[in-house]
Each structure stands twice: as structure tokens, then as C-alpha cells.
Amino acid sequence: MTTFRRIIRPVVAAAAVLAIAAPAAQARPFAGSVGAATPASQPTVIVRTTTDAGFSWTDAGLGAASGLAAGIVALGGAVAVRGRRRMALSS
């Protein structure tokens, strides 16, 4: 049973890290797909908007907070795993 736990814990941890770090899926329709509906000669309207490209403190704060939260979760997991090992060795 202990070899199973030694194998499964790193696998689950790696899967969790990859799930968190993976970018969001960007589903886009393929232009040449079968059955794709094509509009009958409708003109394409392109709308361009511009926004201020200055530094966004809100985005920076959210990024810093999420990084700090991820670090705290990782540290808590490491402490929990280490504490369990000590208890198992002492008994």
C-alpha cells in the first residue's frame, strides 16, 4: 500500500499543477469544416476600439494575490505531507 501512495501522490500533485497552469482552451471554428454555414454575400463590418494601454493596478493586484495564494497552498501541502511522514516514522 505504501508503494501505491508513493506513486499516486506525485502523479496527483503533477496533475493538479498542470491543471492550474494550463491556459484556457480557445475553441475556434475551422473555416473548412463540413457543414459550416457561410453567409450569402453580407459585408463584413470591422469595429476597432482603442483603450488606454497604461499600467493596470487592479490586474497587477489580482495577479500578485493569486500568486501568493498558490504559494500558500503549495506551502500548506508541503507542510501537511511532511507532518504525516514524521508521524508515520515515529509509530
Explain how this protein is built.
- It is a single chain.
- It is elongated and about 75 Å long.
- The chain has two helices and no strands.
- With 91 residues, the protein is an all-alpha fold.
- The longest helix is centred in the last third of the chain and has 34 residues, at 57-90.
- The two termini are 17 Å apart.
- The model has no long low-confidence stretch (mean pLDDT 76).
What's the structural blueprint in terms of helices and strands?
Blueprint: H1 2-21, H2 57-90
Give the helices and strands as they follow along the chain: HH
- The Rg value, from CA coordinates, equals 24 Å
Mean model confidence by pLDDT: 76
Terminal-residue CA separation:
17 Å
Stretches with pLDDT under 50, minimum 5 residues: none
The shape, in one word, is elongated
State the secondary-structure class.
mainly alpha
Number of helical segments with 4 or more residues: 2
Helix-residue proportion: 55-70%
Largest pleated sheet: none
Number of DSSP strand runs: 0
In percent terms, what proportion of residues is strand? Answer: under 5%
Summarize it.
This protein has 91 residues and is mostly helical.
